[in-house]
Amino acid sequence: MARIAQLWRREHGAQNFAVLRHMALSLLRQEKSAPGGIKVKRLKAGWDDTYLTKVLFPEN
Hints:
The chain has 60 residues and is mainly alpha-helical. The chain has 3 helices and no strands. The protein has a domain at 20-60.
């Protein structure tokens, strides 16, 4: 059973990461408090844990 799960992850790993990348980009696009483009927002989220929390859990 573990071998099957390992094989499944290996075969679908690229697709899984593509989904995560799309979700991350979508969250960054929705975040409007910081000026700048996606690259600036991505770097800021990497540097500042408070901003990362704001991106991941937006207040409506």
